[in-house]
Amino acid sequence: MSEKVYPVPQDWAARALIDEAAYRDMYDRSIKDPEGFWAEQGKRLDWIKPYTKVKNVSFAPGKVSIKWFEDGTLNLSVNCIDRHLATRGDQVAFIWEGDDPKDDAKITYRQLHTEVCRMANVLKAQGVKKGDRVTIYMPMIPEATYAMLACARIGAVHSVVFGGFSPDSLAGRIEDCGSTCLITADEGLRAGKKVPLKANADAALAKSPLVTSVIVVKRTGAAVSMTEGRDLWYHEAVKNVSDNCPPEEMSAEDPLFILYTSGSTGKPKGVLHTTGGYLVYVSMTFQYVFDYQDAEIFWCTADVGWVTGHSYVVYGPLACGATSLLFEGVPNYPSVSRVWEVIDKHGVSIFYTAPTALRALMQAGDEPVKKTSRKSLRLLGSVGEPINPEAWEWYHRVVGEDRCPIVDTWWQTETGGILIAPFPGATALKPGSATRPFFGVQPKIVDAEGEVLEGACEGNLILTDSWPGQMRTVYGDHQRFMETYFSTYPNAYFTGDGCRRDDDGYYWITGRVDDVINVSGHRMGTAEVESSLVAHSKVSEAAVVGYPHSIKGQGIYAYVTLMAGEEPSEELRKELVQWVRKDIGPIASPDLIQFAPSLPKTRSGKIMRRILRKIAEDEYGSLGDTSTLSDPGVVDDLIANRQNKR
Ligand code: 6R9
Description:
Blueprint: H1 10-15, H2 20-32, H3 34-41, E1 55-58, E2 65-68, E3 73-74, H4 76-80, H5 85-88, E4 92-97, E5 104-108, H6 109-125, E6 133-137, H7 142-154, E7 157-160, H8 167-177, E8 181-185, E9 188-190, E10 193-195, H9 197-207, E11 213-217, E12 231-233, H10 234-237, E13 250-251, E14 255-260, E15 270-274, H11 276-289, E16 297-300, H12 307-319, E17 323-327, H13 338-346, E18 350-353, H14 355-363, H15 367-370, E19 379-383, H16 389-399, E20 406-409, E21 443-446, E22 452-453, E23 457-463, E24 473-474, H17 478-486, E25 493-501, E26 507-512, E27 517-519, E28 522-524, H18 526-534, E29 539-549, E30 553-562, H19 570-583, E31 592-595, H20 609-616, H21 633-640
Parallel strand pairs: 4-17, 6-7, 6-8, 7-14, 8-11, 11-12, 16-17, 16-18, 18-19, 19-20, 30-31
Antiparallel strand pairs: 1-2, 3-13, 4-5, 9-10, 14-15, 15-24, 21-22, 21-23, 23-25, 25-26, 27-28, 29-30
Helix pairs in contact: 2-3, 6-7, 8-9, 11-12, 14-16
Bound molecules: ligand 6R9.
Ligand 6R9 is lined by residues 261, 307-308, 382-386, 408-413, 434, 495-497, 509, 512.
């Protein structure tokens, strides 16, 4: 891994919300006196009944219980909308940028208030009450955010299911949480292609008859079938409701949403987040990690179907009265300059995206970036997977023109918000490192026996105390919650990630520990080998998995996607093996390299290693569930060209 250091630019140190002294001071306080620290931070919200209890947490085996601000009451939609009306009613809350560059819209806080109240009243008219679960299966249009906020307004619990999921996945998620109401659209639109959301919903509902009301938002105007007595058009229903909807008084620990994790094993888990602590945490991380200053335009490219969309497209920005950009499209449509053009069009200051998107854009070269101005950009962010130093450097040099710090933010659906990340005005950056913990976060690194390691070390990442944004349970299965996260290391939350800490106390996430390969008794982070491969000028993307090796225990199997215009060859194969061998050491040399035109990914862009492992093991007959793949055709090519044929 690169150990290059980028110091905090002087102007950032001078004007950022958090400088190094503030970081050290606040971090110390947050660990020494969590009650006092969070009691103060809780005040960033408007409470109906103020809390007197701040933290009530146990990680004890068999007795895990997590409560924050438990006797306080509030309404989340009031905190995201109503309280801003007096000072920023006419400020834009959402800029919507459609799939087609000609489609866009601006929604002010005042308009958002009206729209959310209307949607809430439509839900109420359908009989939705406090505590009921509502499934949202929507494209990235403003109505998706209205739906989420409308649920929060009336105390219903939303479960957003990504619009790219299949009918089966949707049905499973509806059933698991027992939703009786579904909000969807006729069709979605991505890269000019129609996504048949209503037809998918119909197929899903044929399997789960639980849903008694389906609210359909008109997006493309396509003809869709409407079931009498069950389905209603939103634009018709909304004509009959009032513009005002009194907010429900909620306890801080009342559920806010359920979000299913794209389970690598078993059925997806319904991660449950509650109201007060979650909003305090996403509001605070949004403000400080992105150093958000009034009137700036913030763009997080995540879909609201993922936790990043929940926390940093909708709730964090709105809680802070920010302007958030909602993007319906994809980064390379209609051209590979789209992202940079959108930044110029709307004057985006802060841009937050995933390494996989950056690598794809990087593959297109510098020209599509350089032909745009990007002068509005101040800060860049990364999330979702370890960012390889090669992509980091490109992001910094080409996209940010050496002017914009990069915040590499490590967190999970389960954590609600960012846990490890730099503060741009305080933290010197190292490409590939998420750097240091956020306030109140206590990362520890343990070995396989659970022994806590000190100083510079490498092992499994655990968290020994709670933070307000932590998930509270797996919906309907507290036992599974405790087993999954609290049984591996007693009295600690196990992240499932491997991690290295360097001499400066910086954290380097090495990837899921189930992705760690043991080669001749040496542990090898797949991310490290991938990073090395991707640093080769002819390589665009790489994924590395282990496979059974008669002498080494596990061998290293690398799937490599080449840059446009590069041809696979035996020579290049040898060159890459030598490259990695030289870069990391002989133990890291790939045993097998398969050139792959593309890699199997979930619709959120995560490489599906489970599939790659099976193919590497020559066990492709039992690939399991491939329904969450964005392009199932990729797998056939991988199988046909597998390198480990027996
Ligand atoms: C927010 C989100 C969580 C897993 C997590 C880790 C990986 C996320 C990362 C990162 C290295 C980062 N991950 N951010 N790894 N550096 N900055 O992505 O949530 O979809 O639940 O994924 O993603 O492995 O455990 P989620």
